[in-house]
Design brief:
Distance between the termini: 46 Å
Order of helices and strands: HHHHHHHHHHHHHHHHHHHHH
Strand content: under 5%
Oligomer: single chain
Radius of gyration: 24 Å
Structural class: mainly alpha
Helix content: 55-70%
Low-confidence stretches: 1-10, 84-122, 285-297
Mean pLDDT: 82
Largest sheet: none
Amino acid sequence: MQSDPSSAVTTALDWGAELRAFRRRRGESQQNLADGLKAVGRELGLELGCEQQHISLWERGIVVRISPEYEQVLRKIGAPLPGTTDGPTVVHVDAQPSLVSARYASASAVGGGDGSVGEDLPEEADVRRRRFLGAVAAAVVGETTGLHRWLPALPAPLAPVPAVVEPYHVARIRMMTATLDQLSSDSGGAASVDAAQGALGWAARLLDQRVPPALEGELRVAAAQLANTTAWACHDAGRQEHAEGCFAQALGWLRSSKTVAAQAHSLSADVLFGLSRVALHQYQGGRGSMRERSEELDHNHVKLALRYVQLGQIAAQDANDLGEEAQLHATAAWMYALMGLQDQVEECFARAEHAMGRIQPNRIEPWHQVFFSRGDWEGHRALVYSTLADTIEDRVEAQRLASVAIDLTTGSLAATDPGRPARSRVYDRLVRTTCQFWVGDVGGGLASAEELLDEVKVLNSTRAVERLPQVVAAALPFVARNSTLRDLMDGYRDVIVQHSAAAVGT
């Protein structure tokens, strides 16, 4: 149905849907529309600071009132106009990029800082990621030369590098890795990322020195584990291309040895698990509700991330590593949930539980400790079911799945012990809070949102902050009637804008 540009749409969400439909009928991306509005503005003597983030915010229903300049330009091109609803949830967008745009900019970014934002993945970025996937696939079967162009630039070590590597140097790498893992677990990846990259630079130099043949395999695995830890810290800190590079470094060290031991196969599988999460994050970003953007997130993007899981399964089977198989099946379940494929989700969960039931406790590698920590399985299932609730068409079933996710987070939060990272607890609260608002439990959602905000403030995790807009969007229908909730959501926006300002300064 064609929009009537002379009449305003009643609600922000309605206007967002109308504007998205208008843009798609014109065959434009969000960036194309933003550029077009600026061009028309110049014809009218207006200087608009319109960017892709503005269009994304409008289409997601976060903005319910725009400035007269924007209204004039939208009317000029025949686009639908927003309503004039007054109320405490109104957000103004001025002729220059507004505070709300800054608040949500980092959450709108695909890849957390690689330059591509919003709905549309630039073609060159898509080609780049497919080439990277090809290099990774070749490395899995032993051809690692293709990874060289993707390796990170590591800082030169300040500590002296020995001419001959001794066993205690390998032990030192393992000790540094354990310390950095703990720091990231307690305080978030951003707290450990700089130290991790420095340590990795030192470990990389060791591999260039004289290494006794009997020690080479141990050194490669130890250095690769440190690279794996560094990659996860980069991922959590929002440095996705750095994360890719560190994962590639780990994989290159593990697969370039003439003989690859079972432990190296296992760690290779975990590296591929990490790459799947980075790839998924680059496409998913923090762009609010999956249901609002279900058409915008091409399933092919998720399938590309799924390829890393499938490659990881090859390495896990080579290592006879049931723990990694379980973790990869669980990750595949999340990806199928993003595509709204409920049967595949349940099948992946069944496979993961089958592998978990067969594993020996003494066969759990250090890089599996988080997945097997108390409460993590329940927390992951809650995440997957909440994602599925947001993507399937059957809204009755979606409400049931959201309730299941709430129940699972009750168990995961109660079971969580010191061995589980603080950010995992935060993710559980993110899922719980969002789902409580989805099912209409405003009181429960408010209580959970207060606890969540307190925890996010002390956790140095970009990934956690990037998920906050989903909570804000879920709470949006209730803020007009609840001043306490409205004030709390203002607190959420303050955290988002502070994080955005800090990210710009790094």
